[in-house]
Amino acid sequence: MEDHNPDVALTTHPSDRIKLSVGGKLFETTVSTLRSGGPDSLLAALSNRPIQASSSDPVFIDRDPEIFAVLLALLRSNRLPSTARRFNKQELADEAAYYGIEARLKSAMLPCPLAGIDASPVVTIRPASDGIVSTFTASDGDGSVWIAHGGQISGYDWNLTHVGTIRTHLDDITSIRRVRPEIAAIGSEAAAGLHFYSLASGRRVGSADWTDPSDPRIYKARVTAMADSDESVFVAFDCYHRENCVLVIDKSSLKVVSEFGRQSGSSSKTLVPGKLTFLPESGIIVGSSVTCGAFGYSGYIRLWDPRSGSVIWETNEPGSGRSSRFGDSFADMDVDVLESIIFKVCSKSGDLGMADLRKLGDDPWVYLIDLNPSLRNTSHSSNYVMHCYKKQVLWAEMESWRCGLEWKRENQILRGKAIYVKMHIGGIL
Predict the structure, then answer these.
(1) What is the C-alpha to C-alpha distance for residues 214 and 196, in angstroms, rounded to an integer?
(2) How many DSSP H helices and E strands does the chain contain?
(3) Dist. CA 221–CA 236, nearest whole Å
(4) Which helix (H) or strand (E) holds 35?
(5) ∠ at Cα 200 (190, 189), nearest 5°?
(6) Cα 263 to Cα 300: distance, rounded to the nearest angstrom
(7) Alpha helices, H only, 118-170
(8) What is the distance between the alpha carbons of residues 78 and 34, in angstroms, rounded to a whole number?
(9) Residue 261's CB: how many other CB atoms inside 10 A?
(10) How far, in Å, CA of 269 to CA of 263, rounded?
(11) Cis geometry, peptide bond prior to residue 318 (ω within 30 degrees of 0)
(12) Inter-residue contact 382 to 398 (CB < 8 Å)
């Protein structure tokens, strides 16, 4: 006669039901729902426990049942229920981290993808300590943000909750870059050197300076711009004697390994780069410099190969290859890294120029036809800011109306559509 052991373990199936007692409140769901949180989550581990044939007791978890109900609804529908508004972001994040489903919560709490025509503030970050926000750096990996204000750096996690502030020896930080998970590279246009600070310990862990024993003019060089790749940090340095260059610093050792783009003089063609961008697809550095004087704007856009240190392509404005737009030099520029497109905004007309980095020549620019002539500015040069973000270009005239652009490539031809946005820049970005 065959014996039946009432305590034998049964294999679980995705459709099986499982009972959980969270903080004394009973929940019933399926194994597949718990496993949807990821194979490494606590809930997936609980769902993989063998079911005893004679056992009907639910698994007890000593946590908040109300928040668990929100997270269980998230696993079921992949979106947060309306009851989630009863809890702040940190409460939800703490519980999600305990259950190991933080990635699912992050995905559900992300704002809608940025669309310039429908742009609206999501949240405003105001550091509690003194100092005006001067610059920031964000991580694509974990969504955290580091903000420089005065001589301090404040860190915010993926849900923009403040996690700590450290004070540096600088009075004003004008450049910041995240070079390691807990290491920030900072520089100032008012103080010499590039400095590395650990946000975990609050201590300076290294410094890098531009030095040349053979040239006494290279002294107390200041940082004006930064970019980085997976292995290196590219830093533009400027000396008081108008000597400048770009240093390549190894991320692992935090030491200078090479330099390129060295130049001297105070003309617009030899000024230190004010903006640097690294193109991962080609390994090229794009640098630009803009200055404004009595006769308007002038500057350059230059491409370097950091491996050889040579200039691949450059344009100087006013001047090279722009006879049809002489006197309407660019006021700012940026690069769409994903699509290898350079954008610039003209200082007088406000027109937008686009150039394909794969088809550069003497005059590679294609200009957007302004569909609203009333917004054109032909009376004087204006101060613009510009930023590229995922096939969108946002630019603004300081304290004025300007427009943005959505663009796409059709048969290797750039086509743009103007989208007009009211933007007021008054110390807030």
Answers:
(1) 27
(2) 5, 29
(3) 9
(4) helix 31-35
(5) 10
(6) 13
(7) none
(8) 12
(9) 21
(10) 9
(11) yes
(12) yes
Question: Residue 388 forms beta bridges with which residues?
Answer: 393
As a three-state string, the secondary structure of 47-114 is HCCCEECCCCCCEEECCCHHHHHHHHHHHHHCCCCHHHHHCCHHHHHHHHHHHCCHHHHHHHHCCCCC
Identify the bridge partners of residue 155 per DSSP, sorted by sequence position.
146, 164
Torsion sign over Cα 59, 65, 67, 71: positive
CA atoms of 148 and 135, how far apart (whole Å) = 5
Instruction: Tell me the C-alpha distance between 365 and 363, whole Å.
Output: 6
The first and second tokens of residue 216, run together, are 């006494």
pLDDT digits (tens, 9 = 90+) for 73-91: 999 998 999 999 899 888 9
Are 384 and 336 in contact, with CB atoms under 8 Å apart? no
Q: pTM for the whole thing? A: 0.78
Q: pLDDT per residue over 116-164, tens digit each?
A: 666 677 778 888 776 788 999 987 677 789 999 989 999 998 888 888 9
| C-alpha torsion angle, residues 265, 270, 275, 280 (rounded to 10) | -130
Tokens of 11: 């294999």
331's enclosing H/E stretch is strand 330-336
Q: How confident is the model at residue 182 (pLDDT cuts 50, 70, 90)?
A: very high
The three-class DSSP label of residue 264 is strand
